[in-house]
Amino acid sequence: MEDSFEKLALNPYMSELCQTTSAIRKMDAIASEMEQKHGKGCIFNFSLGNPRVPPPEEYDKIMIETIQDKDFFLPHGYASNVGDKPGREAVAELFSKLQDVKISYKNVILSSGCAGAINIFLRSILSVDDEVIIPSPYFLEYPFYIQNYYGKSVFCKTKFEDGWQINKEEFEKCFTARTRCVIINSPHNPTGIVYSDETIKMISKICENYMKKFGRTIWILSDEVYCRMVRPGKKPYKIFKFYKFSAISYSVSKDLSLPGERIGALIMNPEIQLCERNIHALSIANEFLAIYPPNRLHMRALPKLLKHTSNLECYTECQEIAEETLKKLNIEYIQPEGTFYIFPKIPDGIDEMAFCKTMVKNFIVVVPGSAFGQEGFYRMSLCLGPETVKKAMEQFEIAYKKTLEELGNNKKKKEIEIKENEKCEKKHEILDPQDKNVVHSN
Q: Are 382 and 339 in contact, with CB atoms under 8 Å apart?
């Protein structure tokens, strides 16, 4: 009886989730196991988007100055549910420049990382069974965030052949009377592409049309955690210019290499007349979900911190290093325009999981594309620094060739086995006297 109580201790949803693991974390765990077994540095881990480039040189100095600031009252005390004003003003100033529109600190709420910002936003807009459209491939945690608030994910397939841009016909198919929000992410995880202005104009127009048709607000949430990580000459779109009912989620996890500090923000389009009411709703979600703003020291330091970035140019260099090897091996991919990811194609006829597992055996860890809703590809996170990526791509070339050879041989063996089985079945049909469909001579 006690054993049955143990099994019933969790609700069915969480019990089901316990049977699965995020593919990114799973591959990262495999890398750790391999390191323990074969020694540190033996394996090159392209699984986790955990920046290895250090924070800006100015970071330590800024934080020491903040700690020593005698005018800073209660540096370790509770903060406002919307976040302290200096941090909100700094984020407003940054996005006023990025969006080319005047944003007040009153349009900004600080939260625990980009994930926290997305969660409080969804909590404030979703009702049970509301639908959220997500272009696929996508960051794998979005559907779980939506499920947190009893919403439903609707996936809009994008294609390699279209450069992963959103297709108008496929997008329109996703809308129903329950559509409440569209989540876009650009620069994009896992592909590295940037949505074009034409794409953003198109989805904005479609959202406006269906908003009028169904008589309910349809939001666009733009996840811009990589907004300052674009290749030279490439500019991200300005969602606030295109669509009124829009919001932006952001954090300093990537551009300042501070993922563990959980400094995030949600920025509301200042065109919204009831923006302050929406911010108030977000602050309630911040409190009641126990997500809360970041620590007060970092909020106080944000005005100085956001004037800097880590050495983001090195990520472009890492992508270029990887591209050289991919081209050499005739591997298909869409050139990334930002982030530190690249999303190559697995050769036709090769099983995705078999490919990733065989690469691991050869000391290269990548994440299968099905984890992002796109089977037949794999994501490489190139945030290890140029020198490490150079060494890694040398091993990648060896691993890739061995993997194709091994899987190719396995495929040939299976084909031979299938042909032998077919021969045996035909022979059985001819020889089996019990088979009524076979004509026997007397």
A: no
Helices (H) and strands (E) counted in the chain, each on its own, are: 15, 12
> Any bridge partners for residue 223, and if so which?
185, 249
* pLDDT band, residue 441 (cuts 50/70/90): very low
CA 422 remoteness from chain centre: 45
pTM for this one?
0.90
Token pair 């091994």: residue: 406
Residue-averaged pLDDT of the chain: 90
Give residue limits of the domains in the chain. 12-55+311-406, 74-305
Whole-number Å distance between alpha carbons of 215 and 235: 34
The fraction of the chain above a pLDDT of 90, given in percent, is 76
CB-based burial of residue 6 (10 Å sphere; 0-12 exposed, 13-18 middle, 19+ buried)? exposed
pLDDT at 332 over 90: yes
Q: For the residues 212-225, what does the mean pLDDT come to?
A: 98
**CA 175 – CA 182 distance, rounded (Å):** 10
Cα separation, 378 vs 371, whole angstroms: 9
Q: What is the DSSP letter of 391?
A: H
Which letter does DSSP use for residue 347 in this model? P
Tallying the residues shown for the chain, one arrives at 442
Reduce the DSSP state of residue 84 to 3 states and report it. coil
The predicted pLDDT at position 1 comes to: 54
| CATH number at 12-55+311-406 | 3.90.1150.10
> What's the CATH code, domain 74-305?
3.40.640.10
